[in-house]
User: Fold YgjV family protein from Vibrio paucivorans.
Amino acid sequence: MIAAQVVGGIAFLCGVLAFLQKDDLKFRYGMVTFCFIMAVHFFMMDAIVAAIGVTINGVRTFVSIKTQSRWVMWVFISLLIAMTVPQLSAPIEALTIIGSAAGTWALFSLNGIKMRSVILFNSLCWFIHNICLGSIGGSLVEGTFIITNLITLYRMKLHSPIQ
Assistant:
């Protein structure tokens, strides 16, 4: 359990660095790193739905750097559902699927403030899940993501042209 929390701590640092990025490309690369480290954390916590979901999220985030294809987006949403729903053992695990599907849509369909806002919803879903799971590292990561993302959204809004 301690080793899992150490891995969660490393993911925490990578994730915070990602969310501090105002540049979407740097944000996405940071999120890829975070996702794969977090997948190891969830496997160590025996949270299989979360581990599968966050692994798919890492691949999805990387692919979203290369393409914004709606077809690819639907492939990832379908893959997420097909690989996680059969593994559900508790209703709370569905939050990871809902949040991840919304995050997938955001990464392939939105950018800037709109993308970050949907990613905020994704973080809220994962935060609630991680608290219920008892994942200290995961809860701290998502709680920090929420705060960091809100700060970055504020900074982006502050420096965006008036519309």
User: Anything to note?
Assistant: Helices lie at 2-19, 24-44, 48-66, 70-84, 94-109, 112-133, 136-158.
